[in-house]
User: Which sequence fits this backbone?
């Protein structure tokens, strides 16, 4: 196995598959969160299901955490290898003349997203784990909406979230279509992939920003 | 035209090397970049200075040897050209021009602007060929019908001249465009299909061993490639590699 993953192309494909997996997860996450804007009770029902369902908690969640860790560790490994493949740098290097900022700085946008994930885990995941599996507090199917809205009282937090969503957007503007190329998909449907990339990469982070701002203003 | 040149000078592979500035005058906008370098070298020789070493051969965009990184871009600011096909009219009077060798660990500098690209040869040797019996009873290639679309794509891939601009320009020093062109030019044709699996596995293995970086699909190679080799070739190589890996 270690021998298989040594090949550069396999690493690329693994990166693409984990990235696409995160993209699917993110969509699911968005669909649930956006309900909080329309209906407190629907949001609570969804959240309670996700938070108490055995398959979600003990199968999907570990896979997701593995996927995130795999993606960013592999991202750092690849970036390190790529940087060290040119020990003597150019005195003058005009990267902007032939490639987009997004494609050249995936490690920067990725690192911002990683910092955000740490903050996000601290905000929601750790208290949640603590509630359920450390302190074994009583099950309350209606607590989720209030917890969410309480988190967005702080303007600084809302600003941090929105900035992070901006970087997520930059990450996805390159990442989404790039993942298809990595997996060997480059054909007559390219325009569909490119269009969908723009719709998703701007739409989803914008939607998440809207949710954060909505709850801030809703106090 | 009057120009200031900032050129990478390095005596040999062990020398540290540095940028040296030269002033040059009376350059015609109709000169090619290499002719401008010739003028500079005449001037240096008459001043008793070691001329700038650079690779060149055909001077018409087919040999791929004229590797120069000009003003931060492989083969300079023009598109779909090699350095020998670049003209001085692309620059303005009074410009400062930075000239560096192609850089990558896998392309060590030999002297000044001359780099060792034998890593590309070793990749070719690992599988960039078809095995046929040439003892006199070889079948005429035209006797095998080939679908036009595949033939065109194979020909497009085969226009790669192995110049290394893709590696030089890639922020990761990835050789994927070169290798994918060399894999595709055979794998799309019936004669090349027979050894397709071994070819892609061996060439990619050699590419990795040479220490080229990993592709991150920035697309810079495709923009800087003098022959317009398409990223489609990289996607094809990725799927061929995966298929070969699974079936081997
Ligand atoms: C946790 C922090 C993250 C880090 C440090 C990170 C880092 C990276 C890096 C360095 C790359 C470029 C690697 C390459 O192209 O070879 C990359 C690609 C990618 N990332 Fe991330 N990323 C993170 C989070 C995410 C998230 C949350 C998503 C999706 C929602 C995502 C989706 C993608 C996709 C689709 C690609 C493209 C894969 C490809 O080009 O084949 N990443 N990531
Ligand atoms: S793919 Fe293009 S840039 Fe790369 S070696 Fe071939 S001709 Fe040169
Ligand atoms: S000298 Fe042959 S391609 Fe430039």
Assistant:
């Amino acid at each position: 196995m270690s021998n298989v993953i040594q090949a550069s192309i396999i690493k690329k494909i693994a990166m693409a598959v984990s990235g696409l997996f995160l993209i699917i997860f993110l969509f699911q996450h968005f669909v649930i969160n956006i309900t909080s804007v329309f209906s407190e009770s629907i949001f609570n029902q969804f959240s309670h299901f996700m938070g108490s369902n055995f398959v979600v908690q003990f199968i999907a969640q570990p896979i997701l955490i593995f996927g995130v860790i795999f993606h960013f560790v592999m991202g750092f490994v690849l970036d390190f290898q790529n940087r060290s493949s040119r020990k003597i740098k150019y005195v003058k290097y005009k990267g902007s003349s032939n490639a987009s900022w997004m494609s050249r700085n995936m490690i920067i946008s990725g690192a911002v997203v990683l910092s955000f994930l740490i903050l996000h885990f601290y905000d929601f995941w750790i208290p949640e784990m603590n509630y359920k599996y450390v302190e074994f507090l009583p099950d309350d199917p209606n607590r989720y909406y209030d917890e969410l809205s309480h988190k967005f009282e702080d303007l600084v937090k809302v600003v941090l979230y929105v900035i992070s969503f901006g970087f997520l957007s930059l990450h996805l503007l390159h990442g989404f279509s790039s993942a298809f190329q990595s997996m060997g998909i480059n054909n007559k449907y390219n325009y569909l992939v490119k269009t969908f990339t723009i719709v998703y990469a701007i739409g989803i982070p914008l939607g998440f920003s809207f949710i954060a701002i909505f709850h801030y203003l809703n106090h | 035209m009057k120009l200031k040149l900032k050129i990478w000078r390095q005596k040999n592979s062990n020398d540290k090397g540095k940028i040296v500035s030269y002033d040059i005058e009376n350059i015609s906008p109709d000169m090619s970049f290499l002719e401008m370098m010739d003028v500079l070298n005449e001037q240096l020789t008459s001043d008793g200075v070691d001329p700038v070493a650079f690779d060149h051969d055909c001077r018409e965009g087919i040999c791929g040897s004229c590797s120069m990184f000009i003003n931060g871009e492989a083969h300079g600011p023009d598109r779909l050209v090699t350095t020998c096909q670049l003209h001085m009219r692309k620059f303005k009077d009074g410009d400062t021009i930075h000239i560096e060798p192609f850089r990558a660990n896998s392309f060590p500098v030999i002297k000044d602007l001359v780099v060792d690209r034998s890593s590309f040869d070793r990749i070719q040797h690992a599988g960039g060929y078809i095995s046929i019996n040439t003892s006199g009873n070889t079948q005429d290639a035209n006797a095998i019908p080939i679908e036009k679309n595949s033939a065109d794509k194979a020909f497009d891939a085969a226009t790669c001249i192995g110049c290394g601009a893709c590696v030089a320009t890639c922020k990761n020093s990835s050789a994927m465009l070169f290798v994918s062109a060399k894999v595709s030019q055979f794998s799309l044709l019936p004669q090349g299909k027979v050894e397709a699996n071994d070819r892609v596995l061996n060439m990619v293995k050699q590419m990795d061993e040479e220490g080229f970086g990993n592709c991150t699909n920035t697309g810079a190679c495709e923009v800087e490639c003098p022959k317009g080799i398409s990223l489609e070739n990289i996607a094809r190589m990725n799927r061929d590699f995966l298929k070969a890996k699974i079936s081997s």
User: Anything to note?
Assistant: The mean pLDDT of chain A is 95.
